[in-house]
Write a structure and sequence with these properties.
This protein is about 40% helix and about 20% strand. The chain is an alpha/beta fold and about 280 residues long. The longest helix is centred in the N-terminal third of the chain and has 16 residues, at about 15-30.
């Protein structure tokens, strides 16, 4: 069995930095919290939990110690509440996510109605929504009715969306009624490289595995894109989830992974495949 790994896969710079920051703090302090999972990977979060990182869902759940702002960022209102409680704040927000937050605020100051193309309940999007008044979130064409008529629209995008989806949504918005449309490309180049690399590889193999958290938006996007090209695509969190019967008769296997998937998950999966 030939096992091929996508040229671009696994941790991006933003995620690697968040994990590195967390490990450094945990080595120095005992009372450390993460406001939401630091990254969208259960295995990585569980490993950090063993080192003492406590993941909480609300600011109210933290009374003392150090708070780590995860890679997806947090809304200004949440940051303000943390500061008012006198907590030590360490910001591990991805710099590209910070850029989207900043742009959203600037667009509002310029008089635009801020629109973000993305998943409404994703933490990155929720944080951006908190950076301007009444931000409109557009997931797909079914949300276009939310857009006000004859308005100045300032559009950004969740960093891990695909260029195809971003372009399609801009086309749909452009056919509507607006007085002005200002678009800032906030897609992550590293996410795009992973998407392109994964699609190219899945064309060359009989079966494709996409590794990463089921709640990870960028990993789900990889799986969706690969399934359009290769119907034998499987999104798994790790080797334990693999039903080895799907490998029966397969001679070529491709492996890729989301930007929040640790190297050790990928290495273990590839080694087990090669041993199989």
């Amino acid at each position: 069995m030939k096992v091929s790994v996508a040229q671009k896969c696994g941790f991006c710079h933003g995620v690697r930095n968040a994990i590195s920051v967390a490990e450094k703090i945990l080595a120095e302090e005992n009372d450390v919290y993460s406001l939401g999972p630091i990254i969208h990977n259960r295995d990585a979060v569980e490993r950090l939990a063993k080192s003492g990182l406590k993941t909480v869902g609300n600011v109210e759940d933290i009374r003392s110690g150090t708070v780590l702002i995860r890679s997806h960022g947090a809304a200004p209102e949440q940051i303000a509440k943390l500061k008012s409680k006198g907590l030590n704040i360490v910001d591990a927000t991805c710099i590209l996510v910070k850029r989207v937050q900043h742009i959203a605020g600037e667009l509002e100051k310029e008089g635009y109605k801020v629109v973000i193309i993305g998943e409404e309940n994703h933490p990155e999007v929720r944080a951006v929504v908190g950076c301007a008044e009444d931000v409109i979130v557009i997931a797909d064409e079914s949300d276009l009715h939310k857009l006000p008529q004859h308005a100045k629209l300032g559009v950004v995008c969740q960093t891990t969306q695909s260029p195809d989806h971003f372009g399609r949504m801009l086309g749909a918005m452009g056919s509507g009624s607006f007085s002005e449309l200002k678009v800032i490309n906030t897609l992550c180049k590293e996410a795009i490289k992973r998407q392109e690399s994964a699609v190219e590889l899945c064309k060359q193999v009989e079966i494709m595995f996409v590794l990463g958290g089921l709640e990870s938006a960028n990993t789900r996007r990889l799986a969706e894109l690969c399934k359009k090209v290769n119907k034998h695509t499987f999104h798994l969190q790790n080797w334990d989830e693999l039903d080895i019967s799907v490998l029966s008769g397969k001679k070529s296997v491709g492996v890729t992974a989301g930007a929040s998937t640790p190297d050790w998950i990928i290495d273990e999966f590839v080694k087990n495949l090669e041993d199989f």
